[in-house]
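Exercise: predict the fold of this chain.
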Amino acid sequence: AQVSEDNEIPDAVVNEMKALGLFGQSIPVEYGGLGLTMEEEALAAMEIGKASPAFRSAFGTNVGIGSQGLVMFGTEAQKAKYLAGIASGDIITSFALTEPEAGSDSAAWR
């Protein structure tokens, strides 16, 4: 109820999410993450969403588009530099795109 009323997630809840490793669900264990499979990650998201759908938004970008480019295509140096911080929630990732021919439609980017 507090999240809905205040339109924000309390710092104490975000800190608990960090302590549980929720910011690094999809990041491999060797880089400080939980190394969950896609199915395990989806099941966790459904359980967390039962408490408040807003909770998933606190760490969702870190788990998905914000870290997976590095996990799948990053150099070892990039992975070593960034993934542990992303997994701990100390680094919050994002995705931004604007291209002359595509605008913000990432599927249209060439």
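Check your answer against the key: The mean pLDDT is 90.
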